[in-house]
Design a protein that fits this description.
Layout (H helix, E strand, L loop, with lengths): L1 H36 L2 E9 L11 H9 L6 H10 L14 E4 L9 H12 L6 E7 L6 H24 L2 E10 L1 H7 L13 E7 L7 H7 L2 E8 L4 H4 L2 H4 L20 E11 L7 H5 L5 H5 L5 E3 L32 H8 L12 E6 L4 E6 L6 E5 L3 H13 L7 H42 L2 H5 L1
Parallel strand pairs: 1-3, 1-4, 4-5, 5-6, 6-7, 7-9
Antiparallel strand pairs: 2-3, 7-8, 9-10, 10-11
Helix pairs in contact: 3-14, 4-13, 5-6
Length: 457
């Protein structure tokens, strides 16, 4: 009995041990699988540049070509293609080759895209890693070209989302478009019928000339939040006749009858207010006194408007002839601070209305932002902006990375070279087309001369 009992007990202990081993191995295996299946989060920012400068091509004939979207087989078309692919112009903005390209912030410090990514990383509020990309398109003044670029951008974003999915990463993709690059981004609403494109985290439109199809795009754009940021000092946005056909265009998206503006649209009028030149001694005492209503609203005599123009939104301050130095942010572009400003003003979502812009007035000297609704002047808030140490360090990084050969004279010279090269290409293509037409006419004459009708005659 004792021996049988011991064997029985031994069997029970062995079975109990086996069950424990199976349970523990299953538990560790499940934990291992859950750890491997756990997705990582990552922020992704894509920059979309605007058009290439049309300054060398301003003429009466080109004016009507831009207006009617007939730019093919022209000197402008050939010269702009050369200028777009010239790496010389990558030095003062977030622009690389055509298509989607990841920005390497460690190397190529003289490239504007890598410098911008380093500066944005230095002031970001969250600790999540951010990958930066540029999307390059033709940069031509053409609505059909912009629509093609939007289709390419959609394919690029879908490919990027699938790539991160394979790496077990859930990306929060934000697209920042400037000028007509913002129009390219907005046009995603026209072609967003493809279900493969997952909703974007943010779409930021900087200095965008408001197109005719704006309301249709906003209703269908696949984005959680859309930010339309503009400035009263931006004359190019207000007078872009080629987008809307009107000489004077509204800078903000206004409410219309029978057209509803989506609730995810946030409009921000960006202002910069500084002390006047003669009031530097009393600037800290007077301009920093935010209990004074005139100072809050920017109506005081000791204050002046230093709001950014079209160039200051996107480009670095070289060459200096195109950049206004009054803002207090020189040589940094406004796009550097846009994600930081959006994060700061999220606390004041209750005063947002899609059809009423929010005024964000940067007081750089006082390290503050004055935030208020444009239509409700009684509701005013103040938030923190970057202090002088952060701004000085960012300026130092920018100046240390600035290219020495990128001067206004060098830019004009390079533009002229591309123009002359484009002129030669246009003449070559024109001669080829002419030869083809002549040969076609000769062939047609020969065939008609040998026809039976011609012989009878």
């Amino acid at each position: 009995m004792n021996s049988f009992f011991s064997i029985k007990v031994g069997r029970v202990s062995i079975c109990h041990f086996f069950k424990k081993w199976v349970f523990i191995s299953f538990l560790f295996g499940f934990l291992g699988l859950s750890a491997t299946n756990q997705t990582k989060k990552k922020n992704v920012t894509i920059f979309v540049h605007g058009i290439i400068s049309i300054t060398p091509h301003l003429s009466v004939s080109n004016f009507f070509r831009f207006l009617n979207d007939r730019i093919e087989n022209t000197i402008y078309f050939e010269a702009t293609k050369l200028m777009r692919d010239d790496e010389f112009f990558f030095q003062n903005q977030a622009m690389l080759g055509r298509g989607l390209h990841k920005i390497d912030s460690c190397h190529n410090r003289h490239i504007g895209a890598s410098l911008l990514s380093r500066l944005m990383d230095s002031i970001k509020t969250n600790t999540t890693h951010t990958d930066y990309y540029t999307f390059g398109w033709s940069g031509l003044m053409s609505s059909s070209e912009r629509l093609k670029a939007s289709e390419q951008l959609q394919k690029a974003i879908i490919g990027l989302q699938l790539q991160y999915k394979k790496e077990n990463i859930t990306p929060k993709i934000s697209v920042i478009g400037y000028s007509h690059g913002a129009t390219v981004t907005l046009n995603l609403g026209l072609i967003a019928q493809n279900k493969k494109l997952k909703p974007l985290h943010k779409v930021i439109l900087l200095g965008m000339p408001i197109p005719v199809e704006c309301y249709e795009c906003l209703a269908q754009i696949p984005a959680k939040d859309v930010y339309h940021i503009y400035s009263r000092a931006d004359r190019i946005q207000a007078h872009d006749i080629f987008s809307s056909g009107n000489l004077f265009n509204p800078q903000c998206i206004k409410k219309k009858k029978k057209i509803t503006i989506p609730n995810n649209l946030h409009q921000i009028e960006l202002r910069i207010t500084r002390a006047r030149k003669g009031s530097k001694k009393i600037s800290k005492k007077v301009t920093g006194n935010f209990s004074n209503r005139r100072i809050l609203l920017g109506n005081s005599k000791c204050l002046r408007c230093a709001s950014p123009g079209h160039f200051e939104f996107w480009f670095f301050g070289w060459p200096s002839s195109n950049y206004t130095r009054l803002s207090g942010l020189y040589p940094l572009p406004i796009v550097t601070f846009v994600p930081y400003i959006i994060e700061q003003i999220k606390k004041y979502d209750h005063i947002y209305q899609s059809h009423e812009p929010l005024i964000v007035d940067l007081r750089v000297e006082n390290h503050k932002m004055v935030i208020r609704n444009k239509c409700k002047k009684n509701i005013i808030y103040t938030a923190d902006f970057l202090d002088s140490d952060n701004l000085q360090s960012m300026r130092a990084i920018a100046w240390n990375s600035s290219p020495k050969d990128y001067t206004s004279r060098a830019v004009k010279k390079r533009m002229k070279q591309n123009y002359l090269a484009g002129q030669k290409l246009h003449l070559q293509t024109y001669k080829k087309c002419k030869v083809k037409l002549v040969t076609k006419e000769n062939n047609f004459i020969e065939t008609t001369s040998h026809s039976p009708l011609a012989i009878k005659k």
